[in-house]
């Protein structure tokens, strides 16, 4: 059954040069980054405050030191490497088939694998900026700083990630909508499609070949033209 579905996906890909991939945490779990919402994920661990509270804008402003204690321990995975899914997607882009990767992840692994057109809906841990002068800092600045990272000007450095209570970047959203709405094939992978507004972007897809690859069921399974209930690595290694 799985082989038949993967063969059909291969056929879809072979026949198209206008594919968009929309991915979530499940893309990076095989690289060693945990899925927040899985049974053993971040949201099921015990902390003084819920992760949603710690990773909020207001908590960052009011309790910056506690925010960074959590952030450095649970949000940064410096030594992880791209897995087969990242690499295959980059290869499809080089072939001219994949037009864009729209990702909810903040790990930068798509770019490390070689993908060029990556739309990061929730930002990236690799980018950080001073809230006072906007000077850019890389991830090493955050890792090496004790407690709160400060800029040369004295301002607090903030990760360029979208925290709870913050809005997604308008320009990124607009580009994502453009690519998704014009795509011939939309491949959705490794996401429960439960995080909004990001998950709502798939509603802009107007094509007839929506592929959904996920280990668990989602609310959109019946909308997919091809639903493959499996891990992404299991599928992409066959492409």
From TrEMBL:
Cofactor: Zn(2+)
Cofactor note: Binds 1 zinc ion per subunit.
Residue spans crossing the bilayer: 185-205
Enzyme class: transferase
Residues that hold Zn(2+) according to the record: 130, 133, 151, 153
Residues reported in the UniProt entry to bind NAD(+): 25, 29, 36-37, 104, 106-107, 122, 191-192, 214
Keywords: Cytoplasm, Hydrolase, Membrane, Metal-binding, NAD, Transferase, Transmembrane, Transmembrane helix, Zinc
Residues the entry annotates as binding nicotinamide: 36, 106-107
Alphabetical list of InterPro entries matching this protein: DHS-like_NAD/FAD-binding_dom (IPR029035), NAD-dep_sirtuin_deacylases (IPR050134), Sirtuin (IPR003000), Sirtuin_cat_small_dom_sf (IPR026591), Sirtuin_class_U (IPR028628), Ssirtuin_cat_dom (IPR026590)
Catalytic activity from the UniProt record: N(6)-acetyl-L-lysyl-[protein] + NAD(+) + H2O = 2''-O-acetyl-ADP-D-ribose + nicotinamide + L-lysyl-[protein]
Protein's UniProt keywords contain Glycoprotein: no
Broad class of the protein's primary localization: cytoplasm
Pfam hit, one: SIR2
Name assigned to this protein: NAD-dependent protein deacetylase
């Amino acid at each position: 059954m799985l082989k038949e579905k993967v063969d059909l996906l291969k056929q879809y890909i072979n026949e198209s040069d206008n594919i968009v991939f929309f991915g979530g945490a499940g893309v990076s779990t095989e690289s060693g980054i945990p899925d927040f919402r899985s049974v053993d994920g971040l949201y099921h661990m015990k902390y003084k405050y819920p992760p949603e509270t710690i990773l909020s804008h207001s908590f960052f402003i009011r309790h910056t030191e506690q925010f960074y204690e959590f952030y450095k321990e649970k949000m940064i995975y410096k030594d992880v490497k791209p897995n087969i899914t990242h690499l295959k997607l980059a290869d499809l882009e080089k072939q001219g088939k994949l037009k864009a990767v729209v990702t909810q992840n903040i790990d930068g692994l798509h770019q490390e694998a070689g993908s060029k057109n990556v739309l990061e809906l929730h930002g990236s841990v690799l980018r950080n900026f001073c809230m006072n002068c906007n000077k850019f800092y890389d991830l090493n600045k955050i890792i090496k700083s004790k407690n709160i990272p400060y800029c040369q000007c004295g301002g607090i450095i903030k990760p360029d990630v979208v925290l709870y209570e913050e809005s997604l970047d308008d320009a990124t959203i607009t580009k994502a909508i453009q690519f998704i709405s014009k795509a011939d094939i939309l491949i959705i992978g490794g996401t429960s499609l439960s995080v909004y507004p990001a998950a709502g972007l798939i509603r802009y897809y107007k094509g007839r070949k929506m592929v959904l690859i996920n280990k668990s069921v989602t609310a959109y399974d019946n909308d997919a033209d091809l639903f493959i209930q499996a891990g992404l690595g299991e599928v992409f290694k066959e492409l």
